Amino acid sequence: MSDKILELSERLTNQIAAGEVVERPASVVKELIENAIDANSTQINILLEEAGLKKIQVIDNGTGISPEDAESAFKRHATSKIHSRDDLFRIRTLGFRGEALPSIASVSEITFETATENASQGTYLYLKGGKIEENQPSVLRQGTKIIVENLFYNTPARLKYVKTLQTELAHIGDIVNRLALSHPNVAFHLVHEGNQMLSTSGNGDLKQTMAGIYGVQTAKKMREIQAEDLDFKIHGYVTLPEVTRATRNYLSTIVNGRYIKNFALNKAIVNGYGSKLMVGRFPIAVIEIEMDPLLVDVNVHPTKQEVRLSKEQELTTLLSKTINERLREENLIPNAAENLDFNKKVSEQEKAQQLSMDFEESTKNEKKGLAYDKQTGDFYVNETVNKPVENFVDKVGDESGKVEGFYGNTSEEADISTFSSQENELDSENSSLETVEKEQAYLKKNAQESIADHPEFDVHQKENRRLMEKIMTEKPTEERFPQLDYFGQMHGTYLFAQNTEGLYIIDQHAAQERIKYEYFRRQIGEVSTDLQELLVPIVLDYPNDDALRLKEQADLLEGVGIYLEEFGANSFIVRSHPTWYPQGQEEETIREMIDMLLTTGEVSVKKFREKSAIMMSCKRSIKANHYLNDSQARALLTDLAACENPFNCPHGRPVLIHFDNYDMERMFKRIQDPH
């Protein structure tokens, strides 16, 4: 091998760039859709064959590209989106580097047709391996149609890392869902092998888009949040604590129209729920954040999904506070009947929820023409929602007006793709999807997500509307917790109570755990700056890297009353502790506070006190199979009603559930559901 330094060829540099930009078919779909959005498209069709490996076709009605600029679009670092250094720090478009098209072209075959408004003719290009082989005029209405075929045909090593077709299709479904949520004003239509996977109306209604992706029942249990300060404007939806998933993959954060991955923002969303979430469970959330482009740097990663935020701490604090305050307004008693399905096992329900972003649900919901009524807070069937799809295909398709594959099996009888846990091999670190198993027979059977088979979707149902209005009513805590009449206990574990609204079942351990938690949190008391000398000083030893960090951040520890004296190279001695530390746990408390600093970079007395209160409340609460007499049970309910949050134990489990009168009569067939 020669040691001489040589300049790489353009083709090789494009293939190297493709390794960063084009990881899999989903990467191609993402880049092409983002280009369409930047071109001010209002309708985007995505047609796939073999999960995009054989063919990806994206059609839009955007501004198009002039004939003189068409070839330049495939030159590396050629772009119309930035022109100066200042533009780089005020990026408002999704793309800006000019890398996507040349990178995609270098590892595939591309057919490219485009035309601008009122142009006498369009432009047709054919490229293979990044080289333009044909350039001729074409007849095309305004917009762009790009077909990517035989992806990675000239880089077989990349094909080794491609997963199964179901896995690749799931990645594509996920990214299209995220883009649809980021741009509800754009109509998206995703079709694979003739089967429609997603269709959104593009009317700008975010909640309607969420219903098409997550399902109507989930969308009904999402609450709107809004907040604003001098730097940030937040708008979005979060689910009630009773609707959760097993991973953070259902948290979508959107900054200036760009879906991003940001651990701090995801953590802020979860922190906003506090103890209302069960351990290991996460909400569904779609959060839109608007800020000055100067405060966000998107030029830190090839995919542009990871960004650097200025004033991140202020933003996360605002987000957590907004969610926390919004949930305080809610009646958080789960409706038991809504969570019961006497025809299905719980394990089957869990499997059905795990498909990334539930994008298969969109097939069922959007084909019905789903629409959302903001005044009633409900959904209804709109037969006209999907009609523009056909007109759009006629408008921007080829000369015959037909788009191959689009009119395939897209009827309601179309098969729903299945994704088995063996085939859906998603890497948790590289993917925002979950590994799932979803059986086709169950999907077809699970008709409650469709409007036609679920009476709760009818806006004329007075009982359903009454329930929604009751939940939406904002009341103080003492008014939100119902007046209960206790009348019995089951198995020494559950208490039964009633009122005019129906039956309530209370978990006595969870109830006392909540009561004790709030009691111990108060008992720990206000943090005092008073110190108490230790009879025997504590010596702490740490590795050299941790010791250096502790020396640098000693002021943070001193702020919570921990004073470290150097005692050798990597050792410290502590001679006193704050008086509020639990008696007999002084050394353990000091070590926990220091570990918190080393792990998170901060030390929070509030978090430590909360953790201690949770531990003490759990250990000292009544357990299952412990029978209470009437006076003890009534006293427990009285104390529960006085709690700041009587609806969840500190671990997030529900304290009580509710069967309203309508639910009881329906379960005993005293009321027949309409058909």
From TrEMBL:
<dbReference type="Pfam" id="PF13589">
    <property type="entry name" value="HATPase_c_3"/>
</dbReference>
<dbReference type="Pfam" id="PF01119">
    <property type="entry name" value="DNA_mis_repair"/>
</dbReference>
<keyword id="KW-0234">DNA repair</keyword>
<dbReference type="GO" id="GO:0032300">
    <property type="term" value="C:mismatch repair complex"/>
</dbReference>
<dbReference type="InterPro" id="IPR014762">
    <property type="entry name" value="DNA_mismatch_repair_CS"/>
</dbReference>
<keyword id="KW-0255">Endonuclease</keyword>
<dbReference type="InterPro" id="IPR013507">
    <property type="entry name" value="DNA_mismatch_S5_2-like"/>
</dbReference>
<dbReference type="InterPro" id="IPR014721">
    <property type="entry name" value="Ribsml_uS5_D2-typ_fold_subgr"/>
</dbReference>
<feature type="domain" description="DNA mismatch repair protein S5">
    <location>
        <begin position="210"/>
        <end position="328"/>
    </location>
</feature>
<comment type="similarity">
    <text>Belongs to the DNA mismatch repair MutL/HexB family.</text>
</comment>
<protein>
    <recommendedName>
        <fullName>DNA mismatch repair protein MutL</fullName>
    </recommendedName>
</protein>
<dbReference type="InterPro" id="IPR036890">
    <property type="entry name" value="HATPase_C_sf"/>
</dbReference>
<feature type="domain" description="MutL C-terminal dimerisation">
    <location>
        <begin position="486"/>
        <end position="628"/>
    </location>
</feature>
<keyword id="KW-0227">DNA damage</keyword>
<dbReference type="GO" id="GO:0005524">
    <property type="term" value="F:ATP binding"/>
</dbReference>
<dbReference type="InterPro" id="IPR042120">
    <property type="entry name" value="MutL_C_dimsub"/>
</dbReference>
<dbReference type="InterPro" id="IPR042121">
    <property type="entry name" value="MutL_C_regsub"/>
</dbReference>
<dbReference type="InterPro" id="IPR014790">
    <property type="entry name" value="MutL_C"/>
</dbReference>
<dbReference type="GO" id="GO:0004519">
    <property type="term" value="F:endonuclease activity"/>
</dbReference>
<dbReference type="InterPro" id="IPR037198">
    <property type="entry name" value="MutL_C_sf"/>
</dbReference>
<dbReference type="InterPro" id="IPR020667">
    <property type="entry name" value="DNA_mismatch_repair_MutL"/>
</dbReference>
<dbReference type="GO" id="GO:0030983">
    <property type="term" value="F:mismatched DNA binding"/>
</dbReference>
<dbReference type="InterPro" id="IPR002099">
    <property type="entry name" value="MutL/Mlh/PMS"/>
</dbReference>
<dbReference type="GO" id="GO:0006298">
    <property type="term" value="P:mismatch repair"/>
</dbReference>
<feature type="region of interest" description="Disordered">
    <location>
        <begin position="405"/>
        <end position="436"/>
    </location>
</feature>
<comment type="function">
    <text>This protein is involved in the repair of mismatches in DNA. It is required for dam-dependent methyl-directed DNA mismatch repair. May act as a 'molecular matchmaker', a protein that promotes the formation of a stable complex between two or more DNA-binding proteins in an ATP-dependent manner without itself being part of a final effector complex.</text>
</comment>
<keyword id="KW-0540">Nuclease</keyword>
<dbReference type="Pfam" id="PF08676">
    <property type="entry name" value="MutL_C"/>
</dbReference>
<keyword id="KW-0378">Hydrolase</keyword>
<dbReference type="GO" id="GO:0140664">
    <property type="term" value="F:ATP-dependent DNA damage sensor activity"/>
</dbReference>
<dbReference type="InterPro" id="IPR038973">
    <property type="entry name" value="MutL/Mlh/Pms-like"/>
</dbReference>
<dbReference type="InterPro" id="IPR020568">
    <property type="entry name" value="Ribosomal_Su5_D2-typ_SF"/>
</dbReference>
<dbReference type="GO" id="GO:0016887">
    <property type="term" value="F:ATP hydrolysis activity"/>
</dbReference>
